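Run log // design_07
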């Protein structure tokens, strides 16, 4: 049974990804802050055909990340085959009106949290020379796609795209695949839609190396 770690798994896209992985007979370790929601999700995942466990903590905290990764490997009984980075927050407002706490909190979750988990997991995947890593980004993080009031959120997603561009170059010649999923028009896409996009990345063939999957609604 393959193993996966999903950050931000207690709700939304992360929760939908956990269920889809469970349907594919994965052992899933769910990371989040809402323990009650994760307990319910464990039941849903196991009903769907997989195995699931969870850990409570802050993705942007290095001590929590170290502890949670140890817990995850114990539950999975191995280095994860898949890492899905879906934890994140969105704070919006015109420049000059956004509190600096909102700026710091958004970068902590959306950028620091991604980097911390990559920092922990990539060396283990390198040692095994296999793995799939996917981050849930956004179309507003792509060049020319930022929106008014989204300067903070857009810049965090642009940072994630840059991190993964570097990571992909670092992983050249290995059997580890890393990329991003960039939903657009989030109000018109469901978490299940995005989870399906994540699965297309997880299940790509050995001869493919997907970089960035852009998801748009059918009727724009």
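design_07 sequence
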């Amino acid at each position: 049974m393959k193993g996966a770690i999903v950050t931000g798994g207690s709700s939304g896209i992360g929760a939908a990804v956990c269920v889809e992985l469970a349907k594919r007979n994965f052992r899933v370790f769910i990371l989040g802050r809402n323990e009650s929601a994760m307990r319910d999700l464990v039941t849903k995942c196991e009903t769907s055909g997989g195995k699931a466990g969870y850990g409570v903590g802050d993705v942007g905290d290095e001590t929590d990340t170290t502890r949670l990764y140890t817990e995850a490997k114990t539950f999975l009984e191995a280095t994860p085959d898949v890492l899905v980075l879906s934890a994140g927050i969105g704070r919006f407002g015109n420049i000059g009106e956004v509190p600096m706490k909102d700026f710091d909190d958004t970068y902590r979750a959306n950028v620091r949290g991604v980097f911390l988990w990559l920092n922990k997991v990539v060396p283990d995947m390198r040692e095994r020379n296999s793995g799939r890593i996917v981050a849930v980004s956004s179309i507003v993080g792509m060049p020319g796609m930022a929106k008014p009031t989204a300067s903070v959120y857009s810049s965090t997603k642009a940072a994630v795209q840059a991190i993964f561009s570097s990571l992909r170059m670092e992983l050249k010649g290995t059997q580890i695949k890393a990329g991003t999923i960039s939903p657009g028009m989030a109000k018109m896409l469901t978490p299940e839609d995005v989870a399906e996009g994540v699965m297309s990345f997880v299940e790509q063939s050995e001869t493919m190396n997907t970089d960035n999957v852009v998801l748009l609604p059918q009727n724009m």
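The chain has a mean pLDDT of 94.
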